[in-house]
Amino acid sequence: MKLSEFGFSLPQELIASKPLEFKTETGKLVILRDQCRLLVLHRKTGEIEHKTFTNVVDYFDDKDMFVFNDTRVFPAKLYGNKEKTGAKIEVFLLRELNEEHKLWDVLVEPARKIRIGNKLYFGLDDSMVAEVIDNTTSRGRTLRFLYDGPHDEFKQNLFALGHTPLPYYIKREPEPEDEERYQTIFARNEGAVVAPAAGLHFSRELMKRMEIKGIDARFLTLHIGLGSYRDIDVEDLTKHRMDSEQLEVSEQLAEEVNSARDAGRKICAIGTSVLRAMESTVGMNGHIKPFSGWTNKFIFPPYDFSTADALVTNFHMPYSVMLMLTAAFGGYDQVMDAYQTAVKEKYQFGAYGDAMLIVD
């Protein structure tokens, strides 16, 4: 398929800038994680239902399994100043390259103002200093943070200066509340700069309802990077190359997923990152394998899935790799028709928006 086949008109007012939430009389912010709208697409018939997200459990039975991504988003966006000129610099932390030497792979804006050897200062008192030691791409850099304390202390101080890395399509500055909003309740393994958005809809109450119904919750880790948001600049999708992302699938998870599939239980991937992760580790027999490493798997239609029977996902931006994977799973025509319905019915798009469940 071609890139142009994944375009559609999306009014800006349908892109959610915040999740559903309210403030109590005491001023406390309560996020209504499981109260968003849910569009249910039956991929075999094309039938569409309109529900509330709490209804997601109604489509599954005892011993069915939900697989979640337990990655944790870290405060990756820093604002600093360049030495001498004082020019404002935005630094986006991508990943730590070397713990001992405090080396980080980063993006910087504006890139043209930064050269090897430049020092950057962060914090109101310039307490954090970094030196540019390499130019890896036109925008990318390697920074060495000049900090003499222990690593745990360094990370704590670095992240205290950071801001939540909201997606590019949210046209506002991060707020303190985004630290909780843009994190799943089961986030555990730090390393992502993009939240697994489908997981944001699960509240503790909904997880308890799953438990009561007998639906198993299992976890893998895929540290989602900015490759999910990178523009695709080729019409021929076979020529696009995804950025590599770190993936961990435990031996226990592989055994439990494979046993459930062999027993005829339904496996629901909570998010495109989970589905891509499982498909990255699948063997010839349709079983997933334990894995610790990196994946750059790019899925677009047509594609034969062998790991999941259902998918929970948010509504994605035009031309995005997440939309392409969703269309591959649900069927291109059915998914694109469902997106037109979602626009017409004013569903909210993006990480803070509404959700879609794709089932047979």
TrEMBL record:
GO terms for cellular component: cytoplasm. One of its GO terms (biological process) is tRNA queuosine(34) biosynthetic process. The keyword NADP does not apply. SUPFAM superfamilies: QueA-like. It is an enzyme of class 2 (transferase). InterPro entries: QueA, QueA_dom1, QueA_dom2, QueA_sf. Pathway: tRNA modification; tRNA-queuosine biosynthesis. It comes from the Bacteria. Pfam families: Queuosine_synth. The keyword Hydrolase does not apply. It is found in: Cytoplasm. Belongs to the QueA family. Transfers and isomerizes the ribose moiety from AdoMet to the 7-aminomethyl group of 7-deazaguanine (preQ1-tRNA) to give epoxyqueuosine (oQ-tRNA). Monomer. This is S-adenosylmethionine:tRNA ribosyltransferase-isomerase. It comes from Sodaliphilus pleomorphus. The gene is queA.
